[in-house]
Amino acid sequence: MSKYMLIMRGTDESNAAMMASIDEAMAETGRFIEEMMAAGVLVAAEGLDDPGRGAVVDFGGEAPVVTDGPYGETRELFGGYFLLDVATKQEAVEWARRFPAVRGSKIEVRRVAEADEVPNGSESNGRS
Q1: pTM summary value
Q2: How far apart are CA 123 and CA 128, in angstroms?
Q3: FRET pair for 103, CA 20 to 30 Å: which of 20, 35, 63, 97?
């Protein structure tokens, strides 16, 4: 079994559409979570707070620069995630396809790297 993250990505428009019927969206999402729990594949699920309450740390210069709120050029923002423990990428994709998403949103499916696949040492993060 491998872990896959379903990363919820939305635009201003898709987020507004979801908020317009938030009670229905939350009920449908709750049913989806229950299905994943019943299937034994759900490891974790969390929604993220409003990006305006966050910060961006930019490592583009000599020293990191911290800016409050979302990065200005972002067209899609992460809204939350589901972490699944499934046998294949295709199984993770099938779960993503079943999510009751609003038009215009996306789900990115990414395998979580195992500990032995992550480079170690200071050279791996580009800083010494």
Answers
A1: 0.80
A2: 7
A3: 35
